[in-house]
Structure to design on (1157 residues):
């Protein structure tokens, strides 16, 4: 809320020399963030005077209308100035900056020749004076003495604080509330603007001519006051002081009756609404919309009503969206003479729903949904009534009232309990002072205090609520610091360790970690050819961009987008990876459970809540393009190829301590002949290889771009490692070259050799592959390495093992020794 | 063969002279044959010792032994000298420009958010905390209701939430990692000391300081006798560990539905106060919803944006750098503290 210092000073006795920064700091200290300080008039120097328009000469032949205006500034001679605005007429009072004045932005006013005339000053708009953004025209004053200082008349020199009010402090959306907080923070004298005398006097008068009121839905409001006035002179201008205060608070001056309701709302925090009483049929009612289906609000929008919208109605129709916005049909207009002034204590939730349902957040709804002081309906309507009488010459008819809010609430609080909770031993005086400053009445002197809670603080219920107030008003800086240490911490979980290991492994191998957007387009899903589970995306109901409404089911879309971004910025040789969650809409979603929070939900309900949340897998994925060893003065480097991506997937699975099987796959978006699938326990866990050329072309990626993806969260946690024995005797090696059909994989052949070679086999390493034999065959050459614990193996013995291995390869894979 | 002292001395002198006169390693090879090898005069003299009469054998033995030792010593000395000379000449011709860059593979790195998350996790593990994680697509009840943010409450609109279809399933992309705190309290009994780092989502346009997908770390402690002083001490320790010992913190009253009292925590860093995160004592309503015995236990919670922490710590001025995945950004951080 924006609030001018001049208005605060009316209710807080501030030290004369206090600066705006000190005031802002005082607000911050008690929890009110100051989002801005506007020093109005700081860079404005006079003379800026009130002038009366004597003559207007319209100058033609220019791109825009230009006037040459004669002005009476109380000087001997008429002063003439050029003016580009046309929202004024002869006899109007305007604001004139005369030569020597400096306007905000170091705009020095001097007499000058323009449009073939001498312009001896400038008629000012509000924007030019730095008091609002309104530059629709120049200021036309409702009052003012000719030749007097307009800077003081408009009360320009002021400081406006923009204060963020938290949702639990509805009372502070007013001069009343903020002045109280400021006074409390600075320990200055405070006067409550709601302490006014006229209320009882007005309440006492009843009249049959006054508009009546009923609360038909007690869940919507517990108190309403309707005060009726006649002979209201709505055409009188709003006095300048009121207009200026409204403007400083960031609102617009509209008309006298509306301005009075807004002024009182700003001052006290109670929204009010003025109806044209002649347009009310019968009495007013607070009721749900039910059968009423339509209402056109003041903003000229015809709104379709929901049955549970809370309304102010008369006998025939819906008149206002309660606490949110008035209706156009019963609006106070230039013809109005009778006014019914409404002020109520509405149910905050009902108004929040009104506002949310119609997506209509108003000054009124913002206050009411944060809760208003229940006694204010009575007080604020009296205050506004008095202003109508004083300023609009209204004659008071009488008051109708329905409901009566609970006014007093008493609680007991324990100083010991609060001190224990905060961790600081508050004295009785500190507690009593703090509570008094926020408006509580405190009795008792021991550890247990009797507290009467102020009506505007419905949020103060539990001991913790009072703890906050006591800690806040005394200052959080009083609280000491203590470092508690946990009990039974066990370090990272297996999956957390795995995540770190894999990330660090890839990072030290030349991969750069990236964190990609999880939002994906349908176009990308289609292009990548995702099918099955990977095509089952969740859709965001309110996406940032309609183009990317889907949640990723895989890491590849993001990796490719990021790869491209790097290429767009001149990157050539790239290796990136991401570890992240994917979302797949693969299990039926149960009905959401929403238990009350007044106790722990039953184990069954908790498990239903958990079951309603789909399982989300953790992936690691990577993309590579360009060179893996870089070209330099020694010659050209080596490009990433399909086998590098596969090797990376293999290393990742190996790093988790899992055994795997590797097979050829044709899964999209990979190249159907260059994709490996790694299976762990028979389950596909990783895919790696070269991207499908179609995808590469469509996304304009470098040729032969390769990608891999491994489901980290689906890999079993490895058992504790059993250490191998390291034998010292020399190994004996044997090489074999085998010829097989091309569709036999190296992995199959290797497995067969292992199976046949016996238990002294230490390793099998593929060291050559020759595919020029023809006849659909290929030769694969392996080194078999054998070692025994107790003896050096002879060539004879190892030869037998090799023969057995070859025989097994022959049996399983049709392999024959290459001659 | 008879031995003569004069002959031995003369052989010694010849050998020493020859060694001294040799100028290269090849010459030394011949000297080894001529003056040290089995057929050299001194070796032969040594072999002849056996036939010398016992009375003079000891004397001759000493004489020959000393002569041979002297020759060996001089030979080794000369040999080392000449090898040095050869090396310095030959190696000189093999000299290279060592500033020529070697074969490089790609530079890699961890994203600084990962590094920061690890750093924070380690810090709190050291304080006896566990690192708790949970789903990013989360139930509305866990993300809002259980945290005392009922539907229609103004606080619910403080956060721009991504809702997921179908709406009846009441699933949201979590707006904070707080649902992990709720899950922790529902699943485990106090004492609880956890931090919850993770990805969070809010419908904010990407600009220099905002991103719709960001990261948070939250902390939760529920134990007997936990006070706001514990919260303050923990935040202070946290801030000093991340930003440096000279950093101070301050708590500023604020509002969150899930804490009471609530505060913003600011840090004084590089000469100014910077808003760092939110915190407070866990609201009794939240503890009750999770079945925590509020007569016995109290708790505190805090939460920080990791992007913001990173920006302050490393002087990053534009959020785009953090989210765009430019490898140059990642590479500059390596795999952690340098």
């Amino acid at each position: 809320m924006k609030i001018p210092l001049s208005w605060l000073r009316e209710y807080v006795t501030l030290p004369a020399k206090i600066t705006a920064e000190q005031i802002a700091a005082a607000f911050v200290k008690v929890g009110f963030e100051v989002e801005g300080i506007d020093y109005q008039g700081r860079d404005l120097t006079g003379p800026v005077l009130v002038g009366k328009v004597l003559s207007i000469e319209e100058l033609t032949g220019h791109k825009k209308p230009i006037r040459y205006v004669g002005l009476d500034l109380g000087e001997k001679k008429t002063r003439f100035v050029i003016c580009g605005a046309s929202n004024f007429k002869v006899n109007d009072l305007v604001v004139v900056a005369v030569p020597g004045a400096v306007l905000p932005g170091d705009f020095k006013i001097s007499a000058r020749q323009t449009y073939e005339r001498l312009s001896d000053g400038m008629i000012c708009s509000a924007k030019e004076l730095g008091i609002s953004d309104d530059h629709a025209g120049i200021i036309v004053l409702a009052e003012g003495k000719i030749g007097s200082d307009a800077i003081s008349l408009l009360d320009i020199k002021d400081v406006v604080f923009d204060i963020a009010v938290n949702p639990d402090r509805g009372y502070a959306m007013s001069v009343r509330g903020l002045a109280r907080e400021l006074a409390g923070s600075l320990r200055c004298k405070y006067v409550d603007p709601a302490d006014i005398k006229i209320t009882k006097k007005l309440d006492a008068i009843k009249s049959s001519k006054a508009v009546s009121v009923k609360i038909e839905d007690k869940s919507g409001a517990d108190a309403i006051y309707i005060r009726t006035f006649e002979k209201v002179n709505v055409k009188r201008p709003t006095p300048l002081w009121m207009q200026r205060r409204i403007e400083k608070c960031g609102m617009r001056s509209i008309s006298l009756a509306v301005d009075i309701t807004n002024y009182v709302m700003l001052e006290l925090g109670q929204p009010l609404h003025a109806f044209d009483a002649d347009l009310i049929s019968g009495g007013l009612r607070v009721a749900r919309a039910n059968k009423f289906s339509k209402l056109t609000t003041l903003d000229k929008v015809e709104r379709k009503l929901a049955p549970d919208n809370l309304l102010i109605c008369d006998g025939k129709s819906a008149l206002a969206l309660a606490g949110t916005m008035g209706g156009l049909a019963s609006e106070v207009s230039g013809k109005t003479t009778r006014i019914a002034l409404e002020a109520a204590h509405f149910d905050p939730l009902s108004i929040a729903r009104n506002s949310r349902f119609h997506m209509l957040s108003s000054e009124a709804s913002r206050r009411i949904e944060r809760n208003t002081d229940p006694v204010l309906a009575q007080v604020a309507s009296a205050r506004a009534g008095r202003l109508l009488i004083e300023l609009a010459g209204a004659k008071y008819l009488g008051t109708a009232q329905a409901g009566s809010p609970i006014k007093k609430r008493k609680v007991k609080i324990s100083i010991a309990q609060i001190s224990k909770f905060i961790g600081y031993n508050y004295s009785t005086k500190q507690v009593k002072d703090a509570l008094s400053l926020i408006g509580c009445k405190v009795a008792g002197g021991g550890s247990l205090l009797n507290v009467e809670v102020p009506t505007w603080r419905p949020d103060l219920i539990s001991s913790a609520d009072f703890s906050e107030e006591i800690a806040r008003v005394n200052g959080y800086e009083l609280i000491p610091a203590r470092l508690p240490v946990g009990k039974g911490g066990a370090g990272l979980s297996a999956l957390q360790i795995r995540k770190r290991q894999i990330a660090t492994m890839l990072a030290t191998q030349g991969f750069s970690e990236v964190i990609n957007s999880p939002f994906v387009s349908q176009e990308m899903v289609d292009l990548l050819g995702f099918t099955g589970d990977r095509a089952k995306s969740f859709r965001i109901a309110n996406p940032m961009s309609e183009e990317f409404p889907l949640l990723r089911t895989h890491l590849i879309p993001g990796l490719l987008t990021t790869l491209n971004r790097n290429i767009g910025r001149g990157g050539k040789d790239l290796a990136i990876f991401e570890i992240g969650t994917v979302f797949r809409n693969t299990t039926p979603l149960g009905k959401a459970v929403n238990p009350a929070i007044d106790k722990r939900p039953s184990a069954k309900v908790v498990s239903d809540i958990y079951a309603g949340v789909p399982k989300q897998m953790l992936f690691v994925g990577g993309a590579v393009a360009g060179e893996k060893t870089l070209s330099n003065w020694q010659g050209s480097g080596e490009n990433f190829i399909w086998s590098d991506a596969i090797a990376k997937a293999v290393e990742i699975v190996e790093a988790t301590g899992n055994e795997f099987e590797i097979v050829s796959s044709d899964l999209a978006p990979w190249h159907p002949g260059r994709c490996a699938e790694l299976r762990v326990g028979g389950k596909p866990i990783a895919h790696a290889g070269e991207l499908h050329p179609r995808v590469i072309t469509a996304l304009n990626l470098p040729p032969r771009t390769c990608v891999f993806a491994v489901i980290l969260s689906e890999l079993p946690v490895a058992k504790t490692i059993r250490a191998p024995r390291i034998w010292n005797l020399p190994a004996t090696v044997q090489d074999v070259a085998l010829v097989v059909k091309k569709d036999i994989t190296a992995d199959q052949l290797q497995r067969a050799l292992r199976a046949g070679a016996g238990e002294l086999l230490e390793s099998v390493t593929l060291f050559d592959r020759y595919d020029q034999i023809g006849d659909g065959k290929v030769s694969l050459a392996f080194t078999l390495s054998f070692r025994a614990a107790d003896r050096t193996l002879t060539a004879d013995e190892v030869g037998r093992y090799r023969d057995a291995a070859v025989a097994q390869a022959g049996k399983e894979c049709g392999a024959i020794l290459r001659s | 063969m008879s031995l003569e002292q004069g002959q031995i001395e003369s052989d010694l002198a010849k050998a020493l002279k020859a060694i001294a006169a040799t100028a290269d390693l090849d010459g030394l090879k011949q000297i080894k044959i001529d003056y040290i090898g089995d057929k050299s005069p001194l070796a032969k003299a040594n072999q002849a010792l056996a036939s010398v009469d016992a009375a003079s054998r000891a004397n001759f033995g000493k004489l020959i032994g000393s002569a041979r030792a002297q020759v060996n010593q001089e030979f080794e000395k000369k040999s080392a000298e000449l090898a040095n000379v050869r090396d310095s000449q030959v190696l000189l011709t093999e000299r290279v420009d060592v500033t020529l860059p070697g074969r490089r593979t790609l530079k890699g790195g961890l994203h600084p958010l990962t590094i920061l998350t690890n750093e924070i996790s380690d810090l709190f593990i050291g304080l006896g905390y566990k690192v708790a994680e949970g789903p990013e697509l989360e139930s509305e009840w866990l993300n809002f209701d259980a945290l005392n943010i009922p539907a229609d409450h103004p606080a619910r609109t403080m956060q721009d939430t991504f809702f997921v279809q179908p709406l009846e399933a009441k699933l949201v992309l979590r707006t904070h990692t707080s649902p992990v705190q709720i899950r922790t309290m529902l699943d485990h009994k106090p004492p609880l000391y956890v931090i919850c780092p993770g990805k969070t989502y809010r419908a904010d346009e990407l600009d220099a300081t905002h991103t719709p997908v960001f990261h948070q770390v939250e902390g939760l402690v529920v134990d007997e006798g936990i006070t706001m002083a514990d919260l303050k001490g923990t935040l202070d320790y946290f801030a000093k560990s991340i930003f440096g010992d000279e950093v101070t913190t301050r708590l500023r009253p604020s509002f969150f539905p899930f804490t009471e009292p609530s505060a913003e925590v600011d840090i004084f860093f590089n000469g100014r106060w910077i808003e760092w995160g939110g915190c407070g004592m866990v609201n009794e309503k939240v503890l009750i919803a999770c079945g925590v015995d509020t007569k016995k236990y109290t708790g505190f919670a805090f939460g920080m944006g990791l992007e913001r922490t990173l920006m302050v710590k490393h002087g990053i001025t534009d959020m785009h750098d953090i989210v765009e995945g430019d490898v140059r950004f990642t590479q500059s951080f390596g795999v952690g503290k340098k």
